[in-house]
Amino acid sequence: MKHLTLTVATIALSVGAAQAGSHVDRTGWPESFTVGTASQGGTYFAYGSGWANLVAEELGISGGGEVTGGPMQNMALVHTGDAQFGMTTMGPAAESLAGTNPIAPGLPMSNACAMFPMYQTPFSVTALASSGITSIADIPDGARIGFGPAGSTSDTYFPRMMETLGVNFERRNGGWSDLGGQLQDGLLDVIAFAAGVPVPAVSQLEVQTDVNIIEFTEEEQATIMEAFPVSQFDIAAETYTTLEAPARSVSMWNFAIANCDLPESFVEAVVDVVMSDNARMVNIHKAARSTTPDNWDKNGVLMWHPGAAKWFKENAGADIPDSMIHGM
């Protein structure tokens, strides 16, 4: 009898959810969607593909993540509508709005709108333990450093940070998985990661060999924070098996973005799927612990999509002024 009651209740809930979904105005919704992520082996790809699949399943629309060059390219793809959604960091977003995105210099990419807060991207350095590199000061002159895919947040900012700290290096680019393999094979001396933690490529390296995760000194951290749009951040000790204590770092906020011309009801529905159940997002990637409604205020750069703004106003008490909402 208890089993029968539970079954009936479950059916009732399912029918109720279906009926609620049928009341949503789907006028103009696309038949499918893509989410611009980054290279395989990085956090963007794992996180972005995960929420794309979740949204596709919940809303009954075909969709998924797409491998891209990262935040700069995602801004371009979403601005032009070649991708409905994407992911970016605040630095590349600001540069894209100003028309200094290297993909299309002189073009202000103003048709990419903020959708929801994702997480902070820490900047961290990894080397093989066998290299003897345990600090930024230990990095040898002319070191071969992998900075991630060309045009990514890491490639855009980390070389400048290294130069600011007085490091002379040979610049290398590639996907995170590929760079991790090159580090292990001795083809690189260091990898400079800008990605949500734990970075899949670093976790994989830890399984295969001994690595050093190098933190900034207090002085180095202060120097970088003064010169770049980043904030103080500590990589928690439990993030990697290699760490025995929190590692001093800096970070930059990431936001999901949507083409500003997408229907309001569609974007609102997507935001609801992602933001209404944080446990599901954390199951996709641990970095999603910060994918919570209260972090809506971390966007001070992009115009909000009307559908996203509506969700945060109604569900998070967000005080988003009309001047920051696209089309208002």
TrEMBL record:
The residue range of the signal peptide is: 1-20
Its keywords, alphabetically, are:
Signal
Q: Does the keyword Nuclease apply?
A: no
Give the residue spans that cross the bilayer.
none
Question: Does the entry feature the keyword Nucleus, yes or no?
Answer: no
Q: Which InterPro entries match?
A: TRAP_TAXI
Recorded superkingdom: Bacteria
Descriptive protein name: TAXI family TRAP transporter solute-binding subunit
